[in-house]
Design a protein that fits this description.
It comes from Chelativorans composti. The chain has 34 helices and 34 strands. By secondary structure, it is of the alpha/beta class. Strand 33 (839-842), helix 33 and strand 34 form a beta-alpha-beta unit.
Length: 883
């Protein structure tokens, strides 16, 4: 088996499409080499070795060693050097690289191959003692941490002691001799921690680092990240070994990161940060404040330090060319890592850049307009669920602002919450429903759970590409980074701003759009949906086949639905119209009635209220279809529970409270979910369906008159399992329609259909379709009844099922294609066989889930219906499903 793939000198054994085998980083390094870009030579150990390693008690394939030796040889040949040879010193980096990018999850070791002997060779070779010892101390710290498991802080402590001793502010102030002393202290530290000296043999170092990369695949950080992002453990990581280039060789050297377009706004302009005389992670770690790449960015940010454009114009010009070439090649915005060694540019990484939703929309629209991608591709580039971010509130521009600090606008949106200083606190408070802002000097992968739990993130150190900024953008969380004027004291639990002290628990607000940090809570406002958003939506609408409707019953929901582009109401749950103080009393009277007469009296009170609701709904949705479901839930949901409530109802009904209590008990059910509900209610109490039908038809006639547009109500009978149930209820509806239309002299079209939410209904869809003019798949209940799982009780075991790998996904979130989906498919096919034009839709929560929407497209449903706020998501997902 070939375990090792080499790259360098304009050639590579792998390519970008080998991502599964070489990991993202390795595949793209190979691709960049083949494109003729300046990439230090190296090789990639495949993800298959990782898989082998874990299925063979953490051992390697026997021929791996030999292949690595050959690749080292080749790398040395290209670099004109030799690994482990002090005469022609070759140092390497060892970098992990999984298939899916896992930022910060795996650790990289730089300057590998240095030891007490080779450090002298490096000094001689480069003519720079300071550089050599700086590199060695970095190597010992990284290797000590990543491979030997010694805490970073152990080294940082030594470093800050030395800094203090010399009275320095910055690492760059150390002299060669002082670094040499630090190296001595580091080595002592290592020996005291691990009980043996720091490894001097370069090959031992190399295999130690390779092993550490493979081991890190299973470290808790990586495991958590994979769980949060649904990445299977079986994918494994690759290891990249690459010749070092040095950004820390003095003032003509530098290291940096860049995006080919602005990852926050999407603006088409090179965007990034760099540091002179620095190495690797210095930029993202926020050790010094990085400098902007371009003059334009420098002017905009008001930075007093020179841009790369100014400081190293030649290297900058080359970099601009490379960035252009890579973006055009990958046809997407790229996230780049580079190092400049004594004026020469080297590329170390390229990948598709993470971006905010706003930026994603702008980039997709711009690239389509530039002709780089098609409109279909543009539509497919947007993660539907990410549109949620746009619906984030922003600060009310007219509200007073008590600004206590300004940092960088690292991730948009605004958030208010209590200050917490530790990720654990954020998590704990979240469990109690308390909103928090996580305040840190800077964040690291250990803080991810807290970042998830917090409403927003505030750091006092680090730039736009710091860990906090990158992760927050990925999560769609507001973030302000590098608010340098704030002083955070974890031990005291305080944050000092302009002389004001804020404590844990105090409320602050952050504005990730401007970088402002504000005292107290600030009023927010709904976002204005940008031009790019509507462009993408327009394109999506041209592509998609399925219609998108909303589940709505209140005027507010209906208006929101229209604003977001809903093409009708797919589910109006009439019972929701009864859950308010004034109405529930009439509802209770109706339910608790002993006789039909009493019941009709109570229903007569409800009729005008229902009618008024429907008129308003029809008016708002003028010209669009509205599906109204007859009363569905078990009656006990409306029953009085406390003695007080019983007394109140008894009084209004003028009956004895004791008798009323008995009646309540009679109505008790053991399994209300499977009890007297849905169409069963209409069969037991036909007058309820009668009243609702009357309200619908009278409202439709009135609304048509008022709006001048025809109203076509679609009346939906819930929980049908037997076709004769539907025939029974349909007759009631038809009779009422006749009465209303005769009385008013109006004309009206209407449809009567049913929800398919019982397996029996799905299996007998051919006969049900004789009566039903439409089917709407009620996949919430259909999932419950297919699995035999009560959704309300599922919480106790579904998560366990997921953890133990019994199920992959919660079937109430993403439609179970194999089981529930099979029933949907049967019902759709058999329904159509009976009635060829039968309208088919879905109205469960799944109607807003992109994966479920793709399934609906496959079975050829006519529309999906979801909550109003998910309508844009559904429009986009429906378009992607149709692509
Ligand atoms: P991550 O996945 O965390 O970005 P990387 O492997 O990309 O980890 O590397 C971490 C840092 O080290 C980056 O800044 C990268 O540019 C730098 N680096 C990696 N390999 C080399 C090398 N061969 N020479 C110089 N710098 C390197
Ligand atoms: Mg990193
Ligand atoms: Mg990197």
């Amino acid at each position: 088996t070939k375990w090792v793939y080499s790259f360098g000198d304009g050639r590579a054994e792998g390519r970008a499409s080998d991502r599964n085998l070489l990991g993202g980083k390795g595949a793209n390094l190979a691709e960049m080499c083949s494109l003729g870009l300046p990439v230090p030579p190296g090789f990639t150990i495949t993800t298959e070795v990782c898989t082998y390693y874990y299925s063979n008690d953490r051992t390697y394939p026997t021929d791996l060693d030999q292949q690595v030796e050959a690749a080292l040889e080749e790398m040395g040949r290209i670099a004109g050097r030799r690994f482990g040879d002090p005469e022609k010193l070759l140092l390497v980096s060892v970098r992990s690289g999984a298939r899916a990018s896992m930022p910060g999850m795996m650790d990289t070791v730089l300057n590998l191959g240095l030891n007490d002997e080779t450090v002298e060779a490096l000094a001689k070779d480069s003519g720079d003692q300071r550089f050599a010892w700086d590199s060695y101390r970095r190597f010992i710290q990284m290797y000590g941490n990543v491979v030997l498991g010694i805490d970073h802080d152990e080294f940082e402590e030594i470093l800050s002691d030395e800094k203090a001793r010399h009275g320095y502010d910055l690492d760059t102030e150390f002299t060669a001799d002082q670094w040499r002393e630090v190296v001595g202290l580091y080595k002592e530290k290592v020996e005291s921690e691990i009980g043996r000296p720091f490894p001097q043999d370069p090959r031992e170092q190399l295999w130690g680092a390779i092993g550490a990369v493979f081991n890190s695949w299973m470290n808790p950080r990586a495991v958590t990240y994979r769980r949060l992002h649904d990445i299977p453990a079986s994918w494994g990581t690759a290891v990249n070994v690459q010749a070092m280039v040095f950004g820390n060789m003095g003032e003509t050297s530098a290291t940096g990161v860049a995006f080919t377009r602005n990852p926050s706004t999407g603006e088409k302009a090179l965007y990034g940060e760099f540091l002179i005389n620095a190495q690797g992670e210095d930029v993202v770690a926020g050790i010094r404040t990085p400098q902007p790449l371009t003059e334009k960015a420098r002017l905009e940010s008001g930075s007093d330090k020179p841009s790369l454009e100014k400081a190293m114009p030649e290297a900058f010009a080359t970099f601009v060319e490379v960035a252009k070439k890579l973006e055009a090649h990958y046809r997407d915005m790229q996230d780049l890592e580079f190092t400049i060694e004594r004026g020469k540019l080297w590329m170390l990484q390229t990948r598709s850049g993470k971006r905010t939703t706003r930026a994603a929309l702008k980039i997709a629209v711009d690239m389509a307009n530039e002709g780089l991608i098609t409109r279909e591709e543009a539509v497919c580039r947007i993660e539907p669920a990410s549109l949620d971010q746009l619906l984030h509130p922003t600060l009310d521009p007219n509200a007073p602002r008590d600004i206590i600090a300004t940092g960088l606008p690292a991730s948009p949106g605004a958030a208010t919450g209590q200050i917490v200083f530790s990720p654990d606190e954020a998590e704990e408070l979240k469990a109690h429903g308390v909103k928090t802002i996580l305040v840190r000097v800077e964040t690291s992968p250990e803080d991810i759970h807290g970042m998830h739990a917090a409403e927003g993130i505030l750091t006092t150190r680090g730039g736009m590409t710091s860990h906090a900024a990158v992760v927050a953008r990925g999560m769609g969380k507001p973030c302000v980074s590098g608010a340098g004027s704030l002083r955070v004291d974890y031990r005291e639990g305080t944050m000092v701003a302009l002389g004001r002290t804020f404590r844990k628990g105090d409320i602050i607000t952050i504005d990730g759009g401007t970088g402002q940090v504000l005292a107290g809570a600030v009023p927010m406002q709904e976002p204005a949906l940008s031009g790019d958003f509507s462009t993408i939506m327009e394109w999506a609408d041209q592509i998609r086949r399925m219609k998108v409707r909303a589940n709505a019953e209140t005027p507010l929901d209906a208006r929101t639905a229209r604003k977001f582009g809903a093409e009708g109401i797919g589910l109006c749950r009439t019972e929701h119209m009864f859950f308010n103080d004034e109405r529930i009393l009439a509802m209770r009277e109706m339910i608790l009635s002993d006789t039909e007469e009493q019941r009709r009296a109570a229903l007569a009170k409800l009729l005008p209220m229902q009618r008024a609701d429907f008129i308003e709904l029809f008016e708002i949705m003028a010209g669009l279809p509205v599906t109204i479901r007859l009363l569905d839930p078990p009656l006990h949901e409306f029953l009085p529970k406390t003695d007080e409530e019983i007394a109140e109802v008894a009084k209004s009904m003028d009956v004895n409270p004791k008798r009323l209590k008995e009646r309540t008990e009679e109505l008790h059910e053991f399994n209300p979910m499977l009890g007297n509900r849905g169409c069963r209610l209409a069969v037991s109490y036909p007058e309820i369906a009668e009243m609702q039908a009357r309200a619908i038809f009278e409202a439709a006639v009135e609304a048509a008159k008022r709006t001048g547009q025809p109203v076509v109500p679609e009346i939906m009978v819930p929980l049908v399992g037997i076709v004769s149930e539907l025939s029974f209820v349909k007759k009631i509806i038809d009779d009422v329609a006749k009465q209303v239309l005769e009385a008013s002299g109006a004309k009206l079209d209407y449809l009567v259909g049913t929800m398919i939410e019982l397996p029996r209904a799905a299996l007998t869809a051919d006969s049900i379709a004789r009566e039903a003019e439409f089917f709407s798949f009620g996949t919430n209940d259909l999932t419950q009844t297919t699995f035999g799982i009560s959704r309300d009780d599922a919480g106790a075991f579904l998560e366990t099922y997921r953890k133990k790998g019994i199920i992959e996904q919660d079937p109430f979130i993403s439609l179970d294609v194999d089981g529930v989906g099979a029933l949907v498919k049967i019902a759709a096919e058999n329904g159509r066989a009976t009635r060829s034009g039968i309208k088919l839709g879905i109205c469960g929560e799944h109607g807003g889930d992109p994966a479920s929407i793709a399934f609906c497209e496959r079975v050829g449903l006519d529309y999906v219906s979801c909550s109003p706020f998910r309508v844009p998501i559904a429009r986009l997902a429906a378009a992607q499903a149709a692509c």
